[in-house]
Amino acid sequence: MRCKLCGRPAYIKLHYPRMYLCEEHFVEYFERKVQRTIEKYKLLRKGEKILVAVSGGKDSAVTAYVLNKLGYDMECLHINLGIGEYSEKSEAYARKQCAIIGAPLHIVRVKELLGYGIGEVKTRRPPCSYCGLTKRYIMNKFAYDNGFDAIATGHNLDDEASFLLNNILHWNTEYLAKGGPLLPGEGKFVKKVKPLYELTEREVVAYALAVGLEYIVEECPHARGATTLDMKAMLNEMEEKRPGTKMNFVKGYLRKRHLFELREKVELKECKVCGMPAQGEVCSFCRFWGLEKPLDFRVRRG
């Protein structure tokens, strides 16, 4: 097959929109789509200081690479979760990726910081539950402590569609209210954005290969059997039969998102341990980890 734009051998077949592109024109298409997504949803402005959360995987690496190429002021944060060899590999990949990109990399190691890695805490909560809590808190606190205007994550179209499907099946309206490409900042909550929001996982893989970004391919040991993997498999099967299913599903959600918005806003307090937003006297993070004093992520520069 031949590239639709230049006639050279095709590098990829896009399912939606249906067309073949060579490697050069695919890279242009991908980067243009990221920029259009940023403009369409008003995610970022030039001059804003952006923190990209890099895991060592393809999505976050591509997010950092494209934002840097598009001229945004960005730095990277890697959270080493303390999950044995998996976390050591992930950190090594994050270091390689940031070296290629030429972006500053900050590393926070959960085990050094809190005494235990993910999966080592004696609790009834599943590891994925408190892992998510821990990552969200550290990302936000690091960004807040260091004056970042936004946190960019590598969530792609497949991630968003599977998140929505899972939460609709369980009618988790509180989570459905927080979907979308932009979670505005408020108070000590730093704005969160998803620049890959309209790009599929398959396209992200193709872009990473095209620009020479290596990434960890192993899944987290605690993610095996995760519901989101089942959701993705179902959506992929539907996408094969009816290209555009994922995009139409996500766009439909965006049109109806107001149906899930909370009528009464939850009044947040200030955590008496760390000073960050909390629904009670102590925030979920400090309560789970039993902290008695705040964590300080301020980077001493120069």
UniProtKB/TrEMBL annotation:
One Pfam family, short name: TtuA_LIM_N
Transmembrane segments: none
GO MF annotations, alphabetized: 4 iron, 4 sulfur cluster binding; ATP binding; metal ion binding; transferase activity; tRNA binding
Keywords: 4Fe-4S, ATP-binding, Iron, Iron-sulfur, Magnesium, Metal-binding, Nucleotide-binding, Transferase, Zinc
Named cofactor requirement(s): Mg(2+); [4Fe-4S] cluster
UniProt cross-references to CDD domains, sorted A to Z: TtuA-like
Residues that coordinate or bind ATP: 53-55, 59, 79, 154, 159
NCBIfam families the UniProt entry points to: TIGR00269 family protein
Protein's name in the database: ATPase
Taxon lineage: Archaea, Methanobacteriati, Methanobacteriota, Thermococci, Thermococcales
